[in-house]
Amino acid sequence: MTNVIVTANDAGQVIVRSENNSEWGHIRVEQTSMTVDSNGFGKKSKRSALIPGLVEDLAEFGFTANQSIPGKVIIKESLTPFNKKNPKRDIKIAGDSGVVCCQDGMPIYRKSIFTTDLSKQDDLVSHTNDDEIKAARAAQSESSKLEPNKSFEL
Can you give the residue range of the structural domain that contains 40? Predict the structure, then answer.
């Protein structure tokens, strides 16, 4: 596992204020680590999470862009929305297929969380709508195939 790195936004800001309440904000952190799938295949995975808090408190920590901090980013999945006011916010989508990952018809919610507890692990929910996801990907693949245009025939 690599370190967690504090990032800045395009404007160079490490602390980004909330649009709804300027007293609140967040710091974004990234981590690159190895993940291993169910077939034992390892790959590099980049994760990010937001550390929310009062802007005043976040500023006191003195975070700077590219600063390494102890901790890790974990993934938490659930069949219960994390945000009751905006439940669609954390819905898990299967790649760029547009299909919502579900377990027995219930949508799966996914959130990245920063933690300083290195013993914490991902808490994942298995989806059961593989056929729907495969069909959507197959349809995307089929629609992306190029067919010659008659105007280019010789």
Answer: 1-70
Distances from the Cα of 23 to the Cαs of 19, 41, 49, 75, in angstroms? 10, 44, 20, 27
Q: So what's the pLDDT on residue 13?
A: 95
Task: Write phi, then psi, for 141 (nearest 5 degrees).
Answer: -65, -40
Same domain, 57 and 84: no
Same domain, 28 and 48: yes
What is the rounded end-to-end Cα distance, in angstroms, of the chain? 56
pTM of the model: 0.79
Q: Is residue 24 part of a domain?
A: yes
Which residues, listed in sequence order, are joined to residue 48 by a DSSP beta bridge?
Answer: 30
Nearest-angstrom CA–CA distance, 28 and 59 = 13
Q: Give residue-wise pLDDT tens across range 104-131.
A: 999 999 999 999 999 999 999 999 999 9
In whole angstroms, give the CA distance from residue 95 to residue 137. 9
Gap between the Cα atoms of 82 and 91, Å rounded: 9
